[in-house]
């Protein structure tokens, strides 16, 4: 399978400001995001940008939705909970 090299802003849920922040932590493609995982990317973003509120739905869920090619609001509740649990576990 070929890696997905689409520019991040061409994916669902990721606009220019989110893409810029992702690029600042070394994520340029969906493949990069899949390797680091949405949970780890979210944690890295919150640490890199401590003064900026990074809402879970606009970042964590959006990143997972981008990988799945669905709008973040369509993520199953079970998956949303799993993502938040992963973040909470890794932050501790």
From TrEMBL:
Organism domain of life: Bacteria
Pfam families: TfoX_C
Spans through the membrane: none
Domain annotation TfoX C-terminal: ranges: 7-86
Protein known as: TfoX/Sxy family DNA transformation protein
Organism listed in the record: Terrimonas rubra
């Amino acid at each position: 399978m070929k890696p997905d090299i689409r520019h991040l802003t061409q994916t669902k849920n990721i606009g220019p400001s989110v893409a810029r922040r992702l690029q600042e932590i070394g994520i340029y493609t969906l493949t990069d995001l899949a390797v680091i995982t949405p949970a780890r990317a979210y944690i890295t973003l919150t640490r890199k940008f401590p003064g900026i509120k990074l809402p879970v739905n606009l970042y964590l869920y959006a990143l997972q939705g981008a990988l799945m090619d669905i709008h973040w609001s369509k993520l199953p509740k079970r998956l949303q909970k799993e993502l938040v649990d992963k973040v909470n576990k890794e932050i501790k």
